[in-house]
Amino acid sequence: MPNPYDLAVIGGGPGGYTAAIRAAQLGMRAVLVERDNVGGLCLNWGCIPSKALLAGAEVLNLIRRGGDFGITYDNLSADLAVAVDRSRRIVEGFVGGVETLLQQNKVDVVRGTARLTGPNSLRVTPQGETIEARNILIATGAVTRSLPGIAPDGDRILTSREALELRQTPISIVIVGGGPIGCEFAYLYRSYGAEVTIVELLPHLLPNEDEDVSKQLERSFANQGIAVRTGASVAGISVGSNTVSVRVQTGDAAEDVRAERVLIGVGFGANTDALSLREAGVETDEHGWVRIDDHARTNVPSVWAAGDVTGRMLLAHVASHQGVIAVETMAGRNPPPLDYDQMPRAVYCQPQVASLGLTEAQARERGIDVRIGRFPFRASGKAMAMGDTEGFVKLVVDNATNAIAGWHIIGHNATELLGEASLATALEATTAELSYAVHAHPTLAEAIKEAAQAANGEAIHFFTRRGA
By CB atoms within 10 Å of each CB, which of 8, 227, 388, 389 scores lowest? Predict the structure, then answer.
């Protein structure tokens, strides 16, 4: 094996394998160390399998309302195990595709666990191999967190990983955490017939999203029969032979919510325990995330980091872009740094949530004088034709420049509208430019155009008073 490499990547997730391939494209000799399957948490136990399962839930819900379209059926049944098997086949195919791409780009792949032995060297176990490289990229991702004093057992108390392999729909489930993971699993299990309760510590579901969007999701979940406890904490969990009892504290009141299972979806911590970062002099913050600058450098000049391990934004597309920025900086290309405010965010329950930029509250806190453009999907011809009219597009507009400071969309398949939001933001589009851009009719994307027009009191298909 040639030494030294130009780049050694630790971790084969979206940040790691993307960086290795980009390095190869730029003529660098790259090696990737991965202890499990390439693709990381996202591909194997996150983004891809969860979306495959959610696709099944969407089909199931569409069939259930087939009567609206003149379609009837008898003896409908839904087998979660079949959906899980399908999701694993999709994962296997995707993993194979990434492995092929690495081979085609002549990236060496070493199986094992790596730790830093210096600014330019790694030790891989169990085989004991030493790898030397001019640059090292840490892309080890994150690990699931639990609540203090509560240990998931993989049976009654689950993490998202066990939930993705759960082959029988629970009769009832309590989901601790109302972020993207919690909301997606709530929609999934409710679609397959489970009684679902979400417990969220903060005042609203998806607390990092615009409050109007969070309130709409809460209304939509209530209509689906999902129970939501916000502003509530979990004081304890006790496991019985067939049930779990969750002590839920809301202000001064407490209640015991019983269910067949509990899913802990409260977030992640940095996956750095095996890396020997301290011995290598690599700095982490108070929570254990690897500190990086705007071009993914750590405090050690030859060591870089990308993806969830940095704690910047735990999103696969952010990890991939960080990995590319790191490699292009190594190669002297001087890429522009990421603007984390402008990273697209997506939640795949139905209605879906899609956002980019600042919430209305964040914009006002930063002293930006804003106005709001809003267009409801109930006024969208395409949404009406599909029978999915929940939600809206909300644009937070900077009055000084007419630029879009924030994009907030909730509705059926809303995440597919994020491409326009990203491109328009990159091109610094204004409400006028969005208004003059011709959108095909009928499409959901027309709602973006109309929301931009609504910001000026000029929406055509929804009345908005000018200056309101």
Answer: 227
Q: And the tokens for 183?
A: 């909301």
| SS3 annotation, 197-213 | EEEECCCCCCCCCCHHH
> Which CATH class for the 157-266 domain?
alpha beta
E strands, 240-295, are 244-250, 253-259, 261-264, 268-270
> What is the architecture, at CATH level 2, of domain 5-143+269-330?
3-Layer(bba) Sandwich (3.50)
Mean pLDDT over 336-356 rounds to 96
Determine the pLDDT at residue 1. 46
**What pLDDT sits at residue 465?**
72
For the 351-454 domain, the top CATH level (class) is alpha beta
**Stronger pLDDT, 144 or 248, i.e. the higher one:** 248
Identify the CA nearest to 262 among candidates 147, 371, 362: 147
Positive or negative, the Cα torsion across 28, 29, 33, 34?
A: positive
pLDDT bracket for residue 99 (50, 70, 90): very high
CB environment 381-403: b (16+ within 10 A), e (fewer): ebbeeeebbbbbbbbbbbeeebb
Mean pLDDT across 96-122: 97
Active site residues per annotation: 441
Of 364, 378, 312, which is closest to residue 139 (Cα–Cα)?
Answer: 312
Question: Are both 157-266 and 351-454 of the same fold?
Answer: no
Where are the chain's structural domains? 5-143+269-330, 157-266, 351-454
Residues 355-414: pLDDT tens digits?
A: 999 999 999 999 999 999 999 999 999 999 999 999 999 999 999 999 999 999 999 999
Pick the more confident residue, 317 or 41. 317
Q: 196 near 190, Cβ under 8 Å?
A: yes
Rounded to whole angstroms, the Cα distance separating 128 from 112 reads 9
Q: Are 296 and 325 in contact (CB under 8 A)?
A: yes
